[in-house]
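tool_call: predict_structure(chain=1)
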Amino acid sequence: MAKPNKKMPERSVDIICAKCKTLLFKYKKGGKGALTKCWKERIVADYTTTPCQCPGCGSVFARDTLVRGTPAFKVVGGKVAMK
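tool_result:
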């Protein structure tokens, strides 16, 4: 299975909580599809205090997992939005 590219993508997006609009991550996203997972190596700035939990409303927005042997956050559908 293919690993994520080592070279960081150009595009940087803000990941916000869909419920309370709190900023969660600044993330280097490749491609133009929906956000289904966040590779931990591509997270530029992390604004959460506990992993996968929104600091504003406390909702769990992702699961900490390994995808293709690389650490990632699997995003729960509808819990986050991109800016």
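agent: The mean pLDDT is 92. Proceeding to next step.
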